[in-house]
Amino acid sequence: QVQLVESGGGLVQAGGSLRLSCAASGTNFSNKAMAWYRQAPGKQRDMVATIISSGSTNYADSVKGRFTISRDIFRDNARNTVYLQMNSLKPEDTAVYYCAAGISRPDITLIRFNYWGQGTPVTVSS
To answer: 61-76 pLDDT, tens per residue?
Structure first.
């Protein structure tokens, strides 16, 4: 079955950096879009960054210029690692970060992410 396992979260001071990783397996990832979402306490889960099968990316306005999403697809297409490089972190970036996968579409707004990881917490202290 499809498995998404996040790692790399932790505690960091404002202005610092973290790199999140998502190890994904169990399906053909060559036709999958991958994304990072986050959910802060008491708030809804929001999209942070998306990368589609063509390599095109999309970011939430709040993280543009600070966060970078990238991916490595293994030759067998059945494994995939997605990264989120987070720089210039702010206290408002504090949240649980989730990795997600879904069928890729040229129009990112039409992508439905139906596979999710368990999340990794990120805390940014001021």
So the answer is: 999 999 999 998 887 7
121 phi/psi in degrees, rounded to 5: -80, 140
Question: pLDDT tens-digit profile of 28-49?
Answer: 888 999 999 999 999 999 999 9
Contacts of residue 99, Cβ cutoff 8 Å, sequence gap at least 6? 4, 5, 6, 20, 22, 24, 34, 35, 36, 82, 116, 117
Alpha carbons 16 and 10: distance in angstroms, whole number: 11
The CA distance from 23 to 75, in Å, is 15
Alpha carbon distances (Å) from 45 to 42, 99, 113: 10, 12, 13
